[in-house]
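Re: the request from the purification team.
They wanted to know what the chain is likely to look like in 3D before they choose a buffer screen. I agreed to run a prediction and write the result into the notebook, where they can find it.
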Amino acid sequence: MKQSILKLTVLSLSITAALTIFIDHSNARGSVNKDQATQTAPAALQEKTVEQVQKNIKVLTGMPQSQLIPVMNFFAASMGRRCNFCHVNKNGQWDYVSDEKPEKNTAREMIKMVLDVNKTTFKGAVEVSCYTCHRGRNQPQSIPLLPLPLPSPPAGNPAAAAGGGGSGNVTAPGAQAQASPRPALPSADDIFDKYIAAIGGQPAIDKLKSRAAKGTLVQANGNTLQFEVYQVAPDRFYQLVTTPQGPFERGFNGTVGWEKSARGVRELTGGELAQIRAVNNLFGLIKLKDQFTRTRVAGKDKIGDRDVYVITGTLADGNRQRLFFDVETGLLLRRTTSTQTMIGVIPEQIDFEDYRDVEGIKFPFIARSSTIEAGNPVSTRQFTEIRLNTAVDESKFNMPAAPKPATP
């Protein structure tokens, strides 16, 4: 389990750290420009399903292997439980295949129920999930909690809002109150263009060829990890995270993706490689408009005391994102991603702070990540150093040789 948690932590770091320095995640959610989306789509289609990789999969058949851990986290968050509620752990050793605990089979029956409800009632759309009923509790919440919240006064009735009766209405009988016209919203293109200008302008962006960065990741439990990220256009990258279990590395040389940890070296392929390439795209958080097949301005909102414009967009893989731009400065303050799975929509949120100028381009030096990972629901990434257009050792991107087995 420790290795699984370590892997999740580093993946989360990779995603959010990348976002912070203008590399997109979400996702790891198809956040690449249109040409890259075309290139990575075949790899994603070739990804193995969970039953092709794992043993004793009886219900989640057909689900991409890369969604297994996020879906397990979704179950845990929905139930307010952890892995050991359904899975067997003996003397610190996990036996995920075992059906020893009855809770595991109960979970299978509940998953079947949810899948059937969505299939028969909602024509296959994922409208109902575990969280619909459980809301972070082991037992479904079926009875309203008292006291109920007080109802709000009807919209457009200021007299009722003020506690007055009919005598407070001075409008002539039959006349309708005239609502103040809403100011016109800018177009999505206008908002994207203002963002490009806010971070430094197109000429400065055109000069960006590489990036090297260092920083720290502070987890919810207070643990602090050190990381380094190196990127060269168009898509080569290398990541190093220093953990208590040893270094964790990932890289891509333009052809081969790989991962190295205490467990050895392995090649990344299929959907997993597509995700890693997406989150480490050098311009993933700069060339925003190119990442979406369609966008629209959803309106205005607030983050803290800042007014923001909200853009909703659909990615090439069908998942959706919401982008929150500061009305005054034009900077991106928040990015949320909704990943569609067979059991529900998995949310993720990144908040950006502390924009600083680095050689003519503004970067957010702090990113706060909120996920459904029960063991680490909130974490903070902070950059201590970002350097642009510096020479990067090309050998960093190449897959290292597997270590030789120890001599008995």
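For the purification team: Confidence is low (pLDDT under 50) at residues 1-45, 164-172.
Please add any questions underneath this entry.
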